[in-house]
Amino acid sequence: MTDVPKTNLLDLDRDGLERFFAEELGEKRFRAHQIMKWIYHQHVTDFGQMTDVGKALRAKLEARAEIRPPSVHFDKPSADGTHKWLLGMDQSNAIETVFIPDKGRGTLCVSSQVGCGLNCQFCSTATQGFNRNLSTAEIIGQVWIASKHLGNKTHQQRKLTNVVMMGMGEPLLNFDNVVRAMSLMRDDLGFGLANKRVTLSTAGLVPMIDRLGDEADVSLAVSLHAPNDALRTELVPLNKKYPVAELMEACVRYLGKRKKGESITFEYTLMKGVNDSPATARELARLMRQFSNRMQYADAAKVNLIPFNPFPGTRFERSGETEIRAFQKLLLDAGVLTMVRRTRGDDIDAACGQLKGQVMDKTRRQATFKLKNTIPSTTQTH
Ligand code: SF4
């Protein structure tokens, strides 16, 4: 008799799990709900511990299914409460996940791919090349591991309140797995997070932004980094295909599908002498104001300024504190809600742009970058 591979239940959202119970196990669909509560509310992976599940069903599950999160290579706390995990995805690839507590909220930064195929010039994930998309289990597994570690109690005592798909990879290039995992994050039988507390960050894949608006109800962040095509194409090559005007139109359509009053966050990494001049700040302010005017309410656009975190071999430098403050002030004076992202987890290399994964590169980009710079690479996120 040939062994049928076991289904990892973390790969299935509520709908998929109900179908698995009905079609594969010959059970009532609602039985799936019991199992979801054990997995996501109690962090139980052993069917034997699911005390309210009948013996016969437990035996079927043991034969046909498993609950297998990624393996934890190590985890590290930071003095400021930030926590980092290195998670093995298979025998040769690993990614990092970071939890960042802040006043009244706790945000987990989650990856969607091993490496990234896009080539944003200021991003160290890009220098590591690309291996593959993460499965749904590997994406939701990052949340599961952090939630278990934090002693998170869904619907009761939550330490993990927000998820940002902002780690390694372009989430919209792994659309189905990301949407399925985000549905588990928001499902009451999953992690029960409010829709607006789950944020997807994209480099600007216009058609997929439209699809996301039709198929999921989550917050959107856009890695903008420049207010015009000449500069943005230099920093984010994807801009050649989807220029700023088209991207902003897609954002208008996206917000149009969501509840009135919600906003899109535009991420802007500040690099010395590249995109931090007062003239660029004024141009960005105009673009953001035009966007809010199109939506017909203030603060439809929010700007998140991220001081660049240098990595070995990069040609960019972090903007000076004076330039950062001046850039923010110009935007605020123009009526654009603008925050500067504080650096967290410095002592454990968990700040934005300092995450290290292990990518078996299939694109040769890692080798080319190392050859040019004769240094090891690190990863940086959106
Ligand atoms: S910024 Fe995001 S999309 Fe661009 S290369 Fe890095 S991970 Fe990929």
Describe the structure.
The protein is an alpha/beta fold and 382 residues long. The protein folds into two domains: 7-66, DNA polymerase, domain 1 (Orthogonal Bundle), CATH 1.10.150; 71-373, Aldolase class I (TIM Barrel, Alpha-Beta Barrel), CATH 3.20.20.70. The chain has twelve helices and 14 strands. It has helices at 14-24, 31-41, 55-64, 124-127, 136-150, 175-186, 206-215, 229-235, 244-256, 278-295, 321-333, 365-373, and strands spanning 7-8, 65-66, 71-77, 83-88, 94-102, 105-110, 113-115, 130-133, 162-165, 198-202, 219-223, 264-270, 301-307, 337-340. The chain has a ten-stranded mixed β-sheet. A two-stranded parallel ribbon has the order 1-2. It has a two-stranded antiparallel ribbon with strand order 7-8. Helix 10 (278-295) links the parallel strand 12 (264-270) and strand 13. Helix 5 runs parallel beside helix 6 (175-186), helix 7 runs parallel beside helix 9 (244-256) and helix 10 (278-295) packs parallel to helix 11 (321-333). It is globular, with a radius of gyration of 21 Å. Mean pLDDT is 91; it is low at 375-380. The protein binds iron/sulfur cluster. The site of iron/sulfur cluster has 13 residues, from helix 4.
